């Protein structure tokens, strides 16, 4: 069994934080397909440019995406190609969800 380090735990916690927000999750799923400009992502996901800017800043701070300057514009892409594979693997999971658990009133935490 592989040894888990604080770095591994921290990385998984950052990924969990990113995936806890639907907009951030949709951004990550879009970027696994191809790099994109923030304005294009905002249009594709139906959010404001300000929301997109805030969410990309969060994802950048978590180390999950990186920005690439391109003249007056900036591209965003996943920071590691393994992340696309991990997202694909997560999409293959089938979970049985208790509809009464993990909602806004959840007490299981």
From TrEMBL:
<dbReference type="GO" id="GO:0003700">
    <property type="term" value="F:DNA-binding transcription factor activity"/>
</dbReference>
<feature type="domain" description="HTH arsR-type">
    <location>
        <begin position="4"/>
        <end position="98"/>
    </location>
</feature>
<dbReference type="GO" id="GO:0003677">
    <property type="term" value="F:DNA binding"/>
</dbReference>
<dbReference type="InterPro" id="IPR001845">
    <property type="entry name" value="HTH_ArsR_DNA-bd_dom"/>
</dbReference>
<dbReference type="InterPro" id="IPR036390">
    <property type="entry name" value="WH_DNA-bd_sf"/>
</dbReference>
<protein>
    <submittedName>
        <fullName>Transcriptional regulator</fullName>
    </submittedName>
</protein>
<dbReference type="InterPro" id="IPR036388">
    <property type="entry name" value="WH-like_DNA-bd_sf"/>
</dbReference>
<dbReference type="GO" id="GO:0032791">
    <property type="term" value="F:lead ion binding"/>
</dbReference>
<dbReference type="GO" id="GO:0046686">
    <property type="term" value="P:response to cadmium ion"/>
</dbReference>
<dbReference type="GO" id="GO:0097063">
    <property type="term" value="F:cadmium ion sensor activity"/>
</dbReference>
<dbReference type="GO" id="GO:0010288">
    <property type="term" value="P:response to lead ion"/>
</dbReference>
<dbReference type="InterPro" id="IPR011991">
    <property type="entry name" value="ArsR-like_HTH"/>
</dbReference>
<dbReference type="Pfam" id="PF01022">
    <property type="entry name" value="HTH_5"/>
</dbReference>
<dbReference type="InterPro" id="IPR052543">
    <property type="entry name" value="HTH_Metal-responsive_Reg"/>
</dbReference>
């Amino acid at each position: 069994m592989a040894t888990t380090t604080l770095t591994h735990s921290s990385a998984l916690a950052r990924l969990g934080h990113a995936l806890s927000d639907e907009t951030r999750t949709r951004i990550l799923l879009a970027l696994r397909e191809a790099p994109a400009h923030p304005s294009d992502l905002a249009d594709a996901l139906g959010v404001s440019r300000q929301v997109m800017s805030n969410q990309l800043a969060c994802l950048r701070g978590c180390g999950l995406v990186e920005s690439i300057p391109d003249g007056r514009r900036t591209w965003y892409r996943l920071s590691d190609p393994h992340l696309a594979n991990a997202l694909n693997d997560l999409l293959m999971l089938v979970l049985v969800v208790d509809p009464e658990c993990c909602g806004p009133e959840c007490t299981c935490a």
